[in-house]
């Protein structure tokens, strides 16, 4: 059947899909920083937790000479570049991430991140003000085999160092728990979901 030119049906044109919603610009650097902070803080929490539940109870079951020798060796060997990177990164990365989030007006995620950084700042404060001076005093005691009263040296160290480390463990775990919601909120916003993250 033929149609006049003006009456010929035109082939149906499939509807054009609209452009996909763009993700907020610049979300990847924040994601990387948050994940780096979460990893560093998790590693530090695991380290402190390990001392709380196994290392210190195990040393407490031994004699004074063994305790002093072991802690001197641990304090000496832990001073290395990898530990320093993780120890400082657990604070530096959340601080950087909080600034990045504030600049992007992601208030909720920024608040959670800043709270995590503050919790770890308390860990740093306890480490610098209490634990490191105790470690230095223990090292200054010298060769454990030549210490006149190892029981006294152990007592002066352990009665303060152990409970403060337990507190560091709690604060570090709190920081880790605070950082996780920040990463979730940031990811939710980056995916284009509604919210104030």
From TrEMBL:
Transmembrane segments: 32-61, 81-102, 109-130
Domain of life: Bacteria
Region (Disordered): 1-27
InterPro entries with a match to the protein in the record: Anthrone_oxy
Keyword line: Membrane, Transmembrane, Transmembrane helix
Bias (Pro residues): 1-22
UniProt protein name: Uncharacterized membrane protein
């Amino acid at each position: 059947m033929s149609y006049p030119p003006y009456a010929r049906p035109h082939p149906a044109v499939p509807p054009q899909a609209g452009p996909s919603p763009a993700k907020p610009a610049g979300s990847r650097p924040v994601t990387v920083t948050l994940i780096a902070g979460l990893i560093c803080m998790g590693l530090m929490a695991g380290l402190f937790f390990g001392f709380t539940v196994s290392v210190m109870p195990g040393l407490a079951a031994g004699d004074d000479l063994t305790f002093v020798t072991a802690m001197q060796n641990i304090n000496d060997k832990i001073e290395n570049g990898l530990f320093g990177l993780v120890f400082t990164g657990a604070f530096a990365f959340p601080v950087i991430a909080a600034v990045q989030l504030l600049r992007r007006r992601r208030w909720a995620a920024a608040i959670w991140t800043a709270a995590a950084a503050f919790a770890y700042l308390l860990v740093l404060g306890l480490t610098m003000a209490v634990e490191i001076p105790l470690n230095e005093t223990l090292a200054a005691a010298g060769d454990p085999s030549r210490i006149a009263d190892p029981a006294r040296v152990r007592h002066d160290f352990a009665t303060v160092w152990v409970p403060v480390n337990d507190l560091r463990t709690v604060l570090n775990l709190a920081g880790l728990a605070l950082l996780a919601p920040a990463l979730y909120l940031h990811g939710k916003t980056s995916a284009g979901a509604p919210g104030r993250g």
